[in-house]
Amino acid sequence: MSASAVPAALQTGHIGLNVTDLDRSLDFYRKVFGFEIQGEGREPGRAFAFLGREGRLMVTLWQQSEGGYAPGLSGLHHLSFQVETIEEVRAAEEVLRSLGAEFKYDGVVPHGEGASSGGIFFTDPDGIRLEIYAPAGADAAPAPVAAAPTCGFF
Fold first, then answer.
1. Rounded distance, CA 115 to CA 18, Å?
2. CB atoms within 10 A of CB 65
3. Residues 22, 24: Cα–Cα separation, whole Å
4. E strand segments, 26-126
5. Deepest in the core among 96, 106, 120, 144, taking most CB within 10 A?
6. What is the mean predicted confidence (pLDDT) over 54-81?
7. Residue 150's pLDDT is what?
8. What angle do CA 53, 100, 67 make, to 5 degrees?
9. Three-state DSSP class for 56?
10. Is the pLDDT of residue 16 over 70?
11. Where is pLDDT greater, at 145 or 31?
């Protein structure tokens, strides 16, 4: 193990996302993930919202983009959220379908051929790639690519 200035208890904090329409994104993230607004600002040229659950900040939305997500540029590849069961993944899939979300694959897919973990891969209203997965329960479905990496956005 190499020495580090950061303590071993390091974990991911909140994720900040640039969006083109704060109200549209708020509606999407609240319906899909059950986020609560923990704080919000709406000044000219500066609109943002802090979203979380049970008092924990998880995502911040910043209305400061003029175009959709560009996967060909450096930056975020995708954002993944873990739930406890594959049934929770399927429930989220139904909500996403009702919102007209775009999916990379139809239904739950495993993270690799024969892998137990897996989930759904979709985009938010700005095209940001998102995943909701469970650590077990996806092994009954075939992987879309036999030698798939641990992400559905191959």
1. 33
2. 14
3. 6
4. 36-43, 46-53, 56-63, 79-82, 102-103, 109-110, 118-123
5. 120
6. 90
7. 60
8. 80
9. strand
10. yes
11. 31
Residue 1 CA, distance from chain mean position: 30
> How far is it, in rounded angstroms, from Cα 140 to Cα 14?
33
**The dihedral sign for the CA sequence 26, 22, 12, 145:** positive
pLDDT the model gives residue 83: 96
CB 138 within 8 A of CB 111: yes
Greater confidence, 8 or 60? 60
Tokens of 18: 């640039």
Rounded to two decimals, the pTM is 0.88
Which residues share a beta bridge with 17? 61
46-53 and 36-43: which strand pairing? antiparallel
Q: How far is CA 16 from CA 13, 64, 75, 118, 120, in A?
A: 10, 12, 12, 24, 21
